[in-house]
């Protein structure tokens, strides 16, 4: 019973600090994210906050996860557009690009920043506590999103394309890794203004290269079944 009460108290404190962190991001932006501001807003000291989060990057990571809700809510709509696994996978990438380039600093914190820890473990822990953030997604998609690695989630998603005859088994990891690297490269370019892309142009360009990468390994006799292009 004592352990149960302790866990309840810990979850309650997490919510206090994450609610405060969310407010700080909404009011001032993630660039002005400090442990002192968050602790003050939550009504505690900075030292208390550090009892629940190892460092600022962890708290920032968890807070940033809350800003993915729009993407998670819209994802099922994008998936419905596809008539096969490859189309659904491309549409899911389009949805991800749309939202990530709208909030590049948020998505950079989640998928690109150095957290000083294994991000997959932090992500898994987040969904153990805030699993309700996934309400509205089909069970199959929930399982994919809750997988430990972004590339692994992608590979799991397109696994069915092998059964459907679109892709060879040995190409799955290649495609999932390559498309993630394409997105990361464009995100880095976009955030650092190395090219003057609008968010729409960044999405369009990323999807163009994702699409070309996928079509490069699609079995030639199945290409006509892919009725989407970028």
UniProtKB/TrEMBL annotation:
Keywords: DNA-binding. PROSITE patterns: HTH_TETR_2. Residues 34-53 bind DNA. SUPFAM superfamilies: Homeodomain-like. Gene3D superfamilies: Tetracycline Repressor, domain 2. Residues 11-71 form the HTH tetR-type domain. InterPro entries: Homeodomain-like_sf, HTH_TetR. Pfam families: TetR_N. GO terms for molecular function: DNA binding. This is TetR family transcriptional regulator. It comes from Gracilibacillus halophilus YIM-C55.5.
